[in-house]
Design goal:
With about 375 residues, this protein is α/β, with parallel strands linked by helices. Helices cover about 40% and strands about 15% of the residues. The chain has 15 helices and 13 strands. A hairpin with a 6-residue loop joins strand 9 and strand 10. Helix 3 runs antiparallel to helix 12 and helix 5 packs parallel to helix 6. The longest helix has 24 residues.
Length: about 375
């Protein structure tokens, strides 16, 4: 069977290895596998949210409220905006897909940092669009603007990942706003803030304000998610905040009932459990320093991270694939970044006990080099 040429040339997105695969391949008990590869909340899902999921399980046969009235209302209250400025997606990456299908074609292009979330480029390829990247791995606003000015007629979407996945660096909010002022109104600026809660907790200068964005810019789409600090990675709920003209366009591409009844109930409950969020943020901040100290003691290169993960850039003879394999044999899953063209590993910041285990294993393995 023949498929469109762009499909033949696409690379698969490599997600973090599932626990079940490690159980099958290495014969390790499921309860002994530690997954620190996908930036999930190490505390799981809050008890309050779990109770709501159980309470609503009997409604699993019903379609969700497709207006998502209550969830939009809760988000609108949180950010002091109108519900009409919000779209809900099956993860924020679904909203990325909507946005690119709305703006791109084979004559258009996106612009992004040299190393950033892989799905930007993959979704652009779905539209047969070109992908421009900076030579710098991390966000370099001057270089982004230089490339944009050279290709203004072609670039229709610019991505800023704040903080950036998978490296962890984070632009100041004021720098983001200043960059936005340099972008034409017909160019969509997507600000992916999936990890911004962690950045804002660490440094208030990193905190982005969706209300300020939609009040001051006609072309900005802010993305948030429930997959990280809210602990709902398995429920797949994300949101976009933008001026109504953008939201209205994206809605035309949204399938009906695009998140589940249980996901909707869980997200509403998660917004109410601020204590769980604060616990998660405090743990992340306290435990991050342990990984930074570990890296300094062993002369491992790393980018100071404002997210819930840290990336170690490795030097020969240490190979990221070999390191990940050694950890897998110990029942520990971290993210190999070879698919990003990096000899590096990304490690989710876990609980104190989880981090004791992964740092101990890393120390043993690295001592062999």
């Amino acid at each position: 069977m023949k498929f469109n040429e762009f499909v033949e040339n696409l690379s698969n997105y490599e997600a973090g290895k599932p626990i079940e695969l490690v159980v099958r391949e290495f014969g390790i008990r499921k309860q002994d596998v530690l997954k620190l590869a996908s930036n999930e909340n190490p505390f799981g899902t809050s008890e309050a949210v779990q109770e709501v999921i159980v309470q609503n399980a009997a409604c699993a046969h019903l379609y969700p409220d497709d207006s998502m009235y209550e969830l939009k209302g809760a988000l609108a209250s949180k950010f002091s905006i109108e519900p009409q400025n919000i779209i809900i997606g099956a993860g924020s990456d679904q909203i990325i897909e909507f946005a690119l299908h709305a703006k791109l074609n084979s004559r258009r292009a996106i612009l992004q940092a040299g190393v950033t979330f892989a799905m930007y480029g993959i979704y652009a390829s779905h539209c047969e669009a070109k992908v421009y990247k900076t030579s710098a791995q991390e966000h370099d606003l001057a270089e982004l603007l230089k490339i944009y000015n050279a290709h203004r007629d072609e670039i229709s979407v610019i991505f800023l990942c704040v903080p950036n996945n998978p490296l962890g660096e984070c632009l100041d909010a004021e720098a983001v706003y200043e960059f936005a002022r340099s972008v034409d109104e017909d160019t969509l600026l997507v600000i992916d803030a999936a990890y911004n809660e962690f950045a804002a907790f660490k440094d208030k200068r990193k905190k982005l304000d969706p209300k300020f964005l939609i009040q001051n810019f006609k072309n900005v789409l802010y993305l948030g998610t429930f997959s990280k600090v809210y602990g709902l990675g398995g429920m797949r709920v994300g949101y976009g905040i933008a001026p109504r003209v953008i939201i209205n366009a994206l809605y035309k591409l949204r399938p009906p009932f695009n998140i589940t009844t249980l996901s909707l109930a869980a997200a509403i409950a998660a917004l109410k459990d601020e204590a769980f969020v604060q616990k998660s943020l405090q743990n992340n901040a306290a435990q991050m320093s342990r990984f930074e100290d570990f890296a300094r003691e062993r002369n491992l290169e790393f980018t100071p991270s404002y997210a819930n993960f840290i990336t170690f850039k490795l030097s020969r003879p240490i190979d990221s694939s070999e390191l990940c394999e050694s950890l897998l044999r110990r029942g520990i899953i971290v993210r190999n970044l070879k698919s990003y063209g990096l000899n590096a590993v990304r490690i989710t910041i876990g609980t104190q006990g989880q981090n004791d285990r992964v740092l101990g294993a890393l120390g043993e393995i690295l001592s062999g080099y």
